[in-house]
Write a structure and sequence with these properties.
Blueprint lengths: L2 E7 L5 E7 L8 E6 L9 H12 L2 E6 L16 H18 L5 E5 L1 H9 L8 E5 L16 H7 L1 E6 L2 E6 H9 L2 H6 L4 E6 L8 H10 L4 E5 L10 H15 L9 H4 L6 E5 L5 E5 L2 E5 L14 H24 L3 E14 L12 E13 L3 H11 L3 H7 L12
Parallel strand pairs: 3-4, 3-5, 5-6, 6-9, 9-10
Antiparallel strand pairs: 1-2, 2-4, 7-8, 11-12, 12-13, 14-15
Length: 405
């Protein structure tokens, strides 16, 4: 999705680095915030994939680095859980000032606990989604178990997490212990989606059960089967993002961009970034196009020619439905099969062209209902008059110009 690097100040005036991910077409229906896991960053692959899935559904996402992490300013050793929550509030204020206040908060691991707490300070938030979140921030103390005594005695200690060295101060431990998340969750007052992997060996599945039990409805739980805590498999994070996007549509108040609402505009936007997977937006609807693995695609969606065949098949089916209804015929159902291939012109008896190859669409129509032979023959004639059929057989012009952005 179109991505812009931005920054905004935290409560102490230090600049936090972020990416603002926009949907194809650049006009989102809503905004979301993504909070990364403990000592991670906005650049984690899972954060990218989840943000992309939300953008594909029309939701813009701001994913940022907490103070002292990634590209953000500040010293991590001077932060704690409460400052993470304050960073989230600062991110929301940035969106509100420059774009639109966020309606959705998404948090991974300790970031999940942070969004649960931040939601109460953000009236615009209508929905919260957590991934592998602990029910209490103090769960992080287990990661620091071997150093807790040294931190308490000396005021701070150096720890190694995921191969990186961090200085943890006593104030960080004290702040974790002072949080009472289950009370916060019980008063959340927002739609909640809890996603958790049953085999998560960092934050056990019992945490999801405690969060879900404490929350009031509306609440939902989705099991991320076979995933690990960091969602390192791309399929897992992509699935999580698609689930959050589908779930969020029920609770967000979308702001429909003018070109989505205006059917006369009939604009289709295609966005391709890496590989051949392409996100499509059309009149407020989202589709994915791709190519088979055999030609270098990832097979996550139909090919462009599949979509073209689908246009002919669906237009045929709709046209027959409308015609039968207008005539009062007992047409119960229509099934249209369309295949596409390129054939030599000499093999096409009805083709009048000098080109060596032509596009051949083969269409088979099955109708169900109390129809006589004359009615069935008439439906075949009407099928040949469907608008997409006529477009494909008429002279078509495509104009192209390069624009900025």
């Amino acid at each position: 999705m179109p991505s812009t690097k931005v920054s905004f100040p935290n409560a102490s005036g230090q600049l936090l680095a972020a990416y603002l991910e926009l949907p194809p077409g650049g006009e989102p229906v809503a905004y979301a915030l993504f909070a990364h896991c403990f000592t991670c960053s906005k650049d984690l692959k899972a954060a990218y994939n989840i943000s992309r899935a939300l953008c594909a559904a029309g939701v813009a996402v701001l994913r940022f680095d907490f103070t002292g992490l990634g590209e953000s300013e500040g010293d991590f050793s001077d932060t704690d859980f409460s400052s993470n929550v304050a960073d989230l509030v600062a991110a929301a204020r940035f969106l509100e000032a420059h774009h639109e206040a966020p309606q959705l908060l998404v948090g991974h691991s300790l970031g999940g606990a942070a969004v649960l707490l931040a939601a109460s300070a953000l009236p615009s938030v209508r929905a919260v989604a957590t991934l592998g979140a602990p029910c209490e921030p103090s769960h992080v103390l287990k990661l620091l178990e071997s150093k807790q005594e040294a931190i308490s005695a000396d005021g701070e200690a150096e720890v190694v997490l995921a191969g990186r060295r961090f200085t943890i101060k006593k104030r960080f431990l004290d702040d974790l212990r002072d949080q009472h998340m289950l009370k916060v969750i019980s008063k959340l007052g927002r739609a909640l989606l809890v996603l958790h992997a049953p085999n998560d060996n960092i934050v056990g599945i019992g945490n999801a059960a405690d969060i879900f039990t404490a929350a009031k409805h509306p609440k939902s739980f989705v099991s991320l089967d076979n995933a690990d805590h960091l969602l390192t498999e791309e399929a897992d994070s992509r699935y999580a993002g698609e689930v959050i996007a589908a779930w969020g549509r029920r609770y967000l108040e979308p702001k429909c961009p003018a070109w989505w609402a205006n059917a006369a505009d009939n604009r289709v936007v295609a966005y391709t970034e890496k590989g051949l997977r392409t996100d499509l937006q059309m009149n407020g609807h989202h589709l994915v196009a791709d190519e088979p693995l055999s030609v270098g695609g990832t097979d996550l969606g139909p090919s462009p020619y599949d979509l073209l065949a689908a246009a002919l098949a669906s237009c045929t089916s709709m046209t027959l439905r409308l015609y039968a209804d207008r005539k009062g015929w007992t047409l119960e159902a229509v099934t249209v099969n369309v295949t596409h291939e390129k054939v030599h012109a000499r093999d096409c008896e009805d083709c009048q062209t000098k080109r060596s190859k032509v596009d051949m669409f083969s269409r088979e129509i099955a109708v169900r209902g109390l129809l006589d032979d004359a009615q069935r023959e008439r439906l075949v004639e009407i099928a040949n008059l469907c608008p997409v059929h006529r477009t494909l057989e008429s002279e078509v012009y495509v104009t192209t110009r390069l624009i900025e952005g």
